[in-house]
Design brief:
Spore Coat Polysaccharide Biosynthesis Protein SpsA, Chain A, 7-stranded mixed beta sheet, two-stranded antiparallel sheet, 7 helices, 9 strands, globular, binds guanosine-5'-diphosphate, binds magnesium ion
C-alpha cells in the first residue's frame, strides 16, 4: 500500500517591521522590477498544496498576489514565530513550511528535502542548514507544535533558535545551494541582490 503523503501549507513571512530597511514593507520592495515576495511565491507555490502570506501591514497589497493573507494573532511584532503560529492556526495541513519574504533564491526542492529529513529523524520540526549554520526561519513544522509555540510566545520569549532547540529537531542540508539564504535586509543588500539578478 502506498504511503499517504502529508499535506503542507507554505507560509511566506512578511510580517516584520523591516527596521534595517527604513521600515519599508520588505516584501513589496522591488528587486529588478519584481516585488521581493514574488520571487519567494514563484519558488514555493509549486512545492506545496496551499500557500499563504503572513503580513501585519499593507494586507490589501499582499492580497493582490492571489493568496490568503493572514496576520499575527499574537500582536506586537513578536518575531517570525508569531507568523508561524498564525499559519498553523489558519490551516489544517499536517505541516506548515515557512520561509522569509526577503530571500530571492529559495531552493526548488525545499519541501521534499525538509519532508525527507523530518520523516527520517521522526522529528516535529525541520530547519534548513547552509553547512555552517542553521536558518530557522526556513522551517517545516508539525501542526502538533502549536501549543509549544503559543506557550513560548506567551511567556515573553521570541528567539527562534532557542525555541527550535527545545523541539525534536531534524536538519536539512542545503550547503550545495550557496545562494539559498541570501536575504535582503538593508538598502545595500538590495543593490547587491540586483547585481546577482542582472548577472544571472
Ligand atoms: N509575522 C511576523 N514576521 C516577522 C516578524 N518580525 C520579522 N518577521 C519576518 O521574519 C523574517 C526574518 O526577518 P528579518 O528581519 O529578515 O531577519 P533576519 O533573519 O535577520 O534576516 C522576515 O520574513 C520577516 O518579515 C514579526 O514580528 N511577525
Ligand atoms: Mg532577512
Amino acid at each position: 500500500m502506498s504511503k499517504i503523503h502529508p499535506t503542507v501549507t507554505g507560509i511566506i513571512l512578511a510580517g516584520g517591521r523591516a527596521r534595517r530597511m527604513d521600515e519599508r514593507d520588505k516584501g513589496l520592495i522591488e528587486l529588478e522590477g519584481m516585488p521581493l515576495i514574488k520571487y519567494t511565491i514563484n519558488a514555493l507555490s509549486p512545492q506545496v498544496e496551499q500557500l499563504m502570506i503572513n503580513a501585519n501591514r499593507n494586507q490589501e497589497s499582499y492580497g493582490e498576489f492571489g493568496f490568503p493573507v493572514i496576520s499575527d494573532q499574537i500582536t506586537g511584532f513578536l518575531g517570525p514565530l508569531a507568523g508561524m503560529a498564525a499559519a498553523i492556526q489558519s490551516c489544517d495541513s499536517d505541516y506548515i513550511l515557512s520561509i522569509p519574504c526577503d530571500t530571492p533564491w529559495v531552493p526548488k526542492d525545499l519541501a521534499t528535502r525538509m519532508l525527507a529529513a523530518i520523516e527520517k529523524e521522526q522529528a516535529d520540526l525541520c530547519v534548513a542548514h547552509d553547512g555552517e549554520r542553521l536558518h530557522p526561519v526556513f522551517a517545516l513544522i508539525n501542526r502538533n507544535r502549536i501549543n509549544s509555540l503559543t506557550k513560548y510566545l506567551n511567556s515573553g520569549e521570541r528567539a527562534v533558535h532557542r525555541w527550535c532547540k527545545q523541539q525534536r529537531l531534524a536538519i536539512a542540508d542545503f550547503s550545495d545551494q550557496p545562494k539559498a539564504f541570501i536575504n535582503v535586509n538593508t538598502p545595500e543588500e538590495l543593490i547587491a541582490a540586483a547585481e546577482i539578478v542582472k548577472s544571472a
